[in-house]
Amino acid sequence: MASSFSAPPRVVDECRGVLRVLSDGAIVRSQNTSFPIPVVDDGSVEWKDVLFSPAPHALHLRLYRPRRSQAPGEGRLPVFFYFHGGGFCIGSRTWPNCQNYCLRLASDLRALVVAPDYRLAPEHRLPAAIHDAVASLEWLRSQAATDPWLAESADLARVFISGDSSGGNIAHHLALRFGSPAGRAALAPLRLRGFVLLMPFFGGTQPTRSEAECPDDAFLNRELNDRYWRLSIPSGATLDHPLVNPFGPESPDLEAAEVDPMLVVVGGRDLLRDRAAEYAARLRGWGKPVELAEFEGQQHGFFTIDPWSEPSGQLMGTIKRFMGDNGAGWS
After folding, report:
1. In angstroms, how far is CA 64 from the centroid of its own chain?
2. How far is the C-alpha of 171 from the C-alpha of 163, rounded, in Å?
3. What are phi and psi of 78, to 5 degrees?
4. Identified catalytic residue from 153, 165, 232, 312
5. What pLDDT, in 10s, does the model give residues 310-328?
6. 165 is catalytic
7. Is residue 73 one of the residues assigned to a domain?
8. Is the pTM of this model over 0.85?
9. Would you say residue 229 lies in a domain?
10. Which of 27, 183, 230, 280 lies 20 to 30 Å from 253 when distance is taken between CA atoms?
């Protein structure tokens, strides 16, 4: 006699132990982080969480600022957005790797750091994350006079946008959206001064050399890279979709686009290295204000894995120099 019980659902997709997709379509997220490391907080930077996108999404961001006692008479601070990575599928402002990196950003850059969450795939496929990033900028514009930290500390004429991996992809799309005169006017009185794309998460149907040669034991290997895309791109789309491939057949004409200054950061051992390097080279070849900084021997996300390493310190210096060259106003 056949059993009346069906087999339990099995795991069909898994991302770093914190996201599981089951065969019955259910999605299971762990409350744990894939980076179980301590937060190193010496008290020199203060932080708080703020709701920026109310129900039904209920998204928060985390604000960081150096304590005033550390630099008396400092005045208002540049605003530095940081969008976390995670292949659009995992990650949070609350994860300790993100917290540690943002603490160092606020301290080293002497900036008010804004670290927003965004909706994650596969529950919320692209372009949901892009929409949420736009909402976080609109929150800054609308709350600048009412949130006490913003009213006291934020210089809205010195706003920089950064993100790593999927966050770098988000930064690219924000640069396109707000680079034109109409885009700039939509954010007034905010003034975007520059964009920092840290190992941006781009893709395409034709593999690059760094993708094809990426070892299986890399922090971001090809199997995990492809899994992130499979779970996050719009249903029925390919890796040449405009949200994935900046140079896809249906992507915006970047040669004609207006963009603010960009710093593109790549790691010599990163699977995504070649796509980001080509992105910077092509934009620069079209006369865009784009520079490339390559960190030889570094893997994907080295600066959040260990924000206090020597290469991470060099990156902080590179970002600070870029900000100073583009209106941050440091002496």
Report:
1. 16
2. 6
3. -60, 150
4. 165
5. 999 999 999 999 999 998 7
6. yes
7. yes
8. yes
9. yes
10. 230
